[in-house]
Amino acid sequence: MIGNWLDIGPINQIEAGTARTLPVQGGEEIAVFHTLCGEFFALVNKCPHKQGPLSQGIVHGDVVTCPLHNWNISLRNGKALGEDEGCVPTIPLKVDAGRLYLLRSAVIGGGEAGARAA
Amino acid sequence: MNAPSKIEAGDAPGPQSGPPRERLVVVGNGMAGCRAVEEILARDPGRYDVVIFGAEPRVNYDRIMLSPVLAGDKSFEQIVINPQGWYDDNGITLVSGDRVVEIDRTTQTVIAASGRAEPYDRLLIATGSDPFIIPVPGKDLEGVVTFRDLDDVGKMLAAAERGGSAVVIGGGLLGLEAAHGLNLRGMKVTVIHLMPTLMERQLDEAAGYLLKTELERRGQTILTGANTKEILGADGKVTGVRLEDGSVIDADIVVMAVGIRPNTALAAASGLTVERGIVVDDHMVTSDPAVMAVGECVQHRGACYGLVAPLWDMCRVLADKATEAAPESAGYQGSVTSTKLKVSGIDLFSGGDFSGGEGCEDIVMRDASRGVYKRVIVKDAKIVGAVLYGDTADGSWYFDMIKRGEDVSDIREALIFGQAFAAGGALADPNAAVAALSDDAEICGCNGVSKGKVVACIEGGAHSLDAVRSGCKASASCGSCTGLVESLLALTLGGNVDSGPKTLCKCTSFTHDDVRRLIVEKELRLIPQVMQELHWSTPDGCASCRPALNYYLLCAWPGQYVDDQKSRFVNERMHANIQKDGTYSVVPRMWGGLTNPQELRAIADVVEKYNAPMVKVTGGQRLDIFGIRKEDLPAVWADLNAAGMVSGHAYGKSLRTVKTCVGSEWCRFGTQDSTGLGVKIEHMTWGSWMPHKFKIAVSGCPRNCAEATIKDFGIVCVDSGYELHVGGNGGIKVRATDLLMKVATEEEALEVCAAFIQLYREDAHYLERTAPWIERVGLQYVKDKLEAEGAIGRYAARFRHSQQFMQDDPWAKRAAGDEAKLHQHLAEVRPFPAIQMENA
Ligand code: SRM
Ligand SMILES: Cc1cc2nc3c(=O)[nH]c(=O)nc-3n(C[C@H](O)[C@H](O)[C@H](O)COP(=O)(O)OP(=O)(O)OC[C@H]3O[C@@H](n4cnc5c(N)ncnc54)[C@H](O)[C@@H]3O)c2cc1C
Ligand code: SF4
Ligand code: FES
């Protein structure tokens, strides 16, 4: 089990209400979010609209507002909210003993469309 | 040690005699172990001979009540669950003060530290958890304690007796209860918490803020977002704690309450399957059918628990299995948990999943005057979570509905008002509940307005919330009765309620003007505080209100308010303009549109060094460098700084450019030094944050080559002085300026410019440029404000005061390493084959 999870470091690297990025060699860059309610999520760092870097958006509740044209994206499942349609792949993430782990296969494989983070 | 030195199997006298009974050995004399035995006895008292080992030298007690013992509300005797008599009466052998050190599963024997060995037919492991010790230097010093058992409480009480300071590391439930106890016992207490919100696993930001405020009011120092670097000591004893930022806090005792780890060492050493906890199935059986486990040490369906309620459920299932009492039982299904903080005078409840989620709807109610925050999370017509602060009377009611998965569609509207209100069938309509109030019932506590008066006001023609507010003052102060007033409007007028002016955003019923006024009147100083006091309907706002509140607070409390980066739009957070491909453009300031070889050279060097694909002259008389990656921004800025250039704020709701023309120095028509004045104005105004972007221009004569009459503030020089124009816009909707006034000197022009900017800063709505602002309030309003006796001087002085704190080049700070996290990646992943470490 453990070998399937990629340790990406301690949780305090990401301030609540912000996100940080994780480039993947030969793959899609990942944005790791920490919400103000204390949850963590990982998504491919590309807005389903026109590839805006979601990591740079304003985080509120479990939603990020894309910095380019203000689409609201659910951090939970990557889906665009409201009138907009589209979905960005999510990467299952777990927190254990103060560290963050991403599902290795999803990191390499570019995420799971619509998958729920563990 | 390994060889059983003394076998006492069967020695213990049982209450009944008869055929030899099966032997049940329990490791752990704690809450789960003993409860499991109680449950077994309740089902089949004659089934087992029971031996219980406990590492602690005492009988079974209620661990959660250690907090009241520390606080002095209870004695140890009062928290004992099972006194020695219980063991004796039930023929249970208690081996206390003797830790089990080995389980030999082939011979089915446990061996304790004393050498005592006991064979078993069935073994129950209930070893609980160990407190987690953060691996910092100094962790082994005398005076560093945890909070888990009675001995820990003894150490804390001894320290409190001597007085002095205590540092509690960890702002979760345990840490706060320890801090509370030590504070009551007279120690000076500081709580250090890594995360920005206290009890972040149980509370959202809003409730965490209320809790922190209350604890601070009680004299505790609460440091959130603080990381412990080292525990300091002298002569082997603790003397203080050093934080990552270098600050040192004195301490005579340090309590580490950062979390717990399931105590699995014994089980792991005996070869049972252990992951985070001892893995059990739905009947609490481990990977060995003869060995069961229960309590905090287990992992069931991937989950480990740290509260007692799940243990009770586990114990029932375990007893069913161990006595074959309910062969059809589906077993343990996992638990939803709830938390209450046991600190007297603080009512706090959290239950279920409050993190929100897909299809989840938040119902939030805030009552600022009573310090109440309630949030209920509803999904698919069921309550899935609740966070209550200040009034937890309905906690168990919500929690019960969470556990039963009850459909709440019928009471949805009234849910947040609580059981008494919602359960009343017909009363489920909040309007009906308001209708039932008597005419004398007080609606608005702040202004003492009764229901009768509100209704009379509405009947007298006030058909909107705003009209009621100005008519009878109800809901005009703190706003907590807004919902009630809206109900009265609906009841009195049926469907004919006028919708009021536009609110700031969907999170609030207040308008921009209300929010700005109340921030000043009520001296609100933090975003979570504004949201609480003004009854925000969402837990942490949205992408519209967060930046607006950040600006309003910044404007209201210059030099005091600490800018909230996470409420800033990306450009303002990164101090550069984001481009469609996610790179940034960088525009250094060129004062008044002037430049020199040194600046041009530095820009040229940056373009080459960072491979910027384009450099362009902007419409604002300066140069824009495109295609810079966020990682490279600090280095680019350092290079530009070295040539004397600072941020041009081309990204900000702030002063942008001051465009100038050639002016009297060179131009044959120039009447004044428009270039020089523009440079002076830019030096005065740069760095200022505004409701929206702000552009200035100075033209040297009415030919107006700097296009001053489509700027927010434009100066047109004439022979006799300076014409000052305001409210122009060259953007989406072109608007030519209005003439504000004419002045004779440069000094006056600068003073009026500062005053006008400050009026705009204090008055306009966030994201409202001067043009729409002036169209809304009228030019006369602006003139009246500025032409009042001494007004220009006062506004200008406030502007200059605020500029003291703003004219600090944000680029220089970043180049020096400030907020480095914003620019750096977390890490980089280079794929390599997954290493299988099963059970490693
Ligand atoms: C770079 C520049 C274009 C150029 O190459 O010349 C520019 C670029 C942008 N303008 Fe502009 N504007 C630029 C001068 C202007 C001007 C001319 C001026 O300032 O004299 C105007 C009309 C004058 C005015 O503002 O009244 C102008 C009116 C706008 C507007 C419409 C504003 C309005 O009130 O209607 C927007 C949209 C907005 O702000 O919401 C806008 C927005 C933008 C944004 C920020 C769009 C965006 O949100 O990303 C563009 C950013 C590009 C980038 O990444 O750098 N830009 N923009 C100019 C930068 C000037 C500078 O040195 O800072
Ligand atoms: C101060 C405090 C306040 C708390 N407040 C709350 C609260 O308000 N609400 C709530 O739900 N929960 C609360 N808890 C948590 C709750 O106390 C635990 O969930 C519960 O005690 C767990 O029961 P357990 O039997 O699994 O572990 P424990 O009660 O810890 O029992 C385990 C026992 O096993 C013994 N042991 C361990 N290894 C061995 C060995 N090898 N040989 C022999 N004996 C061994 C230990 O000494 C211990 O006595 C609180 C805990 C603390 C410390
Ligand atoms: S006019 Fe301004 S906002 Fe529009 S494309 Fe040009 S730079 Fe961008
Ligand atoms: S790219 Fe995200 S909203 Fe357009």
What's the shape of chain A? Answer: globular
Structural class of chain B: alpha/beta
Going across the major beta sheet of chain B, what is the strand order?
6-3-2-10-22
Secondary structure: helix percent of chain A: under 10%
**How much strand of chain A?**
25-35%
Pathway (chain B): Nitrogen metabolism; nitrate reduction (assimilation)
Keywords (chain B): 2Fe-2S, 4Fe-4S, FAD, Flavoprotein, Heme, Iron, Iron-sulfur, Metal-binding, Nitrate assimilation, Oxidoreductase
Pfam families (chain B): Fer2_BFD, NIR_SIR, NIR_SIR_ferr, Pyr_redox_2, Rubredoxin_C
Family (chain B): Belongs to the nitrite and sulfite reductase 4Fe-4S domain family.
Write the layout of secondary structure elements.
The complex is a heterodimer of chains A (118) and B (840).
Chain A: E1 5-10, E2 18-22, E3 30-34, E4 40-44, E5 58-60, E6 63-65, E7 72-74, E8 93-96, E9 99-103, H1 104-109
Antiparallel strand pairs in A: 1-9, 2-3, 3-4, 5-6, 6-7, 8-9
Chain B: E1 6-7, E2 22-27, H1 31-43, E3 48-54, E4 60-61, H2 66-71, H3 76-79, E5 80-82, H4 84-89, E6 93-96, E7 100-104, E8 109-112, E9 116-119, E10 122-125, E11 129-131, E12 144-146, H5 150-162, E13 165-169, H6 173-184, E14 188-192, H7 205-217, E15 221-223, E16 228-234, E17 237-243, E18 248-250, E19 253-256, E20 260-262, H8 265-269, E21 278-280, E22 291-293, E23 298-300, H9 308-323, E24 338-340, E25 348-352, E26 360-367, E27 372-379, E28 382-389, H10 395-404, H11 419-422, H12 430-435, E29 442-444, E30 449-450, H13 451-459, H14 465-472, H15 482-493, H16 512-521, H17 527-533, H18 545-556, H19 570-574, E31 577-578, E32 584-586, H20 597-609, E33 614-617, E34 623-628, H21 633-642, E35 655-660, H22 674-685, E36 694-699, E37 713-718, E38 721-726, E39 738-743, H23 746-763, H24 770-777, H25 779-787, H26 791-806, H27 810-815, H28 820-823
Parallel strand pairs in B: 1-9, 2-3, 2-10, 3-6, 10-22, 12-19, 13-14, 13-19, 14-15, 21-23, 35-36, 36-37
Antiparallel strand pairs in B: 4-5, 7-8, 8-9, 11-20, 16-17, 17-18, 24-25, 25-28, 26-27, 27-28, 29-30, 31-32, 32-34, 33-34, 37-38, 38-39
Helix pairs in contact in B: 1-9, 7-17, 13-14, 13-15, 16-18, 20-21, 22-23, 23-26
The structure holds siroheme (SRM), flavin-adenine dinucleotide, iron/sulfur cluster and FE2/S2 (inorganic) cluster.
